[in-house]
């Protein structure tokens, strides 16, 4: 597996712990519909969260959240629409981005309600 893929998978594992510690219940990890994928789907207090996780080893070449383009967010929205077709009971939804930087120490930056 390529190093950037290993970093991404590690970041997703860290994200699960991060959100569980905040009281979220993780429903799905890496939920897929065709070529679309949602890193994490979780809920807390009646709100369904579609979460994009971006992890970088350091901020040397920019912050992880800068890697989430409008196109990436649109793919997240498209995937969420498919999820909601399959599971239509959810009324309140939110799109979140969790940026994780691993060095010099693990740092988290949560962008809530990131819908553009």
Report the C-alpha radius of gyration, rounded.
14 Å
Whole-number mean pLDDT: 93
Number of strands: 5
- Coarse shape: globular
**Helix count, per DSSP?**
2
Query: Which structural class do you get from the secondary structure elements?
Result: alpha+beta
Query: Class in CATH?
Result: Alpha Beta
Main sheet makeup: 5 strands, mixed
Helix content: 25-40%
The end-to-end distance, rounded to whole angstroms, is: 33 Å
Task: Please summarize what this structure is.
The protein is α+β, with helices and mostly antiparallel strands. Helix content is 31%, strand content 37%.
What does this structure look like?
This protein has helices spanning 3-21, 70-86, and strands at 25-33, 36-44, 47-56, 92-101, 107-111. The protein is α+β, with helices and mostly antiparallel strands and 116 residues long. The protein has a 5-stranded mixed sheet. A hairpin with a 5-residue loop joins strand 4 and strand 5. 31% of the residues lie in helices and 37% in strands. It starts with a helix and ends in a 5-residue tail after the last strand. It has one domain (3-111): 3-Layer(aba) Sandwich (Trna Endonuclease, Chain: A, domain 1).
């Amino acid at each position: 597996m390529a190093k950037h893929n290993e970093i991404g998978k590690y970041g997703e594992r860290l994200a699960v712990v991060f959100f569980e510690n905040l009281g979220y219940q993780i429903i799905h990890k890496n939920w897929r519909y065709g070529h679309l994928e949602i890193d994490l789907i979780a809920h807390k207090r009646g709100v369904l969260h579609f979460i994009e996780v971006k992890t970088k080893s350091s901020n040397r070449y920019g912050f992880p959240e800068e890697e989430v383009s409008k196109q990436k967010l649109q793919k997240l929205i498209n995937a969420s629409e498919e999820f909601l077709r399959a599971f239509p009971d959810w009324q309140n939804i939110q799109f979140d981005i969790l940026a994780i930087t691993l060095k010099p120490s693990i740092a988290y930056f949560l962008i809530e309600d990131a819908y553009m």
